[in-house]
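Fold Annotation — chain and its backbone
Next Lines — sequence and tokenised fold

***
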Amino acid sequence: MSNDVKKEEKKNPEVVDFLSQHIYFSRFPEDERIYLASRFSVRNLKMNDVIFNDKEVGKTGYIIKDGGVKIYKEGFLGEEQIAQLGKGDIFGEMVLLDAFPRSASAKAISDTALIEITGDVYDNLKVQRPEIAVKMMDIFLKLLTTRLRTTTLKLFAQF
């Protein structure tokens, strides 16, 4: 391991460990996980803290390191839950791929730690480490297609 990689590893060792055990990121070579961890940050939340609101312009995607998140829309009768997410789940990634506002709101359902992937970090990856950016885009596309299939099934199950 080079000295540069060792320096980067020291920047965020708990994120390196988390990524090493993540369903998708564990497949990345160690040097790529270390590189990502040195650029990601951790955001700690309390129960009911809002992460983002529907229709907000966002620049950050998230991976749940610990805790849980509720994705919801405000309706006539209050909050309508779309999904409940837990450790390891990725959300908010659509803003990394397009410039549209958020399509739902998100809040912590317990004390929660999130790994933040900012748009700036993702954009820099595309230039500085395109091999990592492509792998991340593959993850995002898998998530989006899975969610689309699930939504389609739910819609047609109503008829």
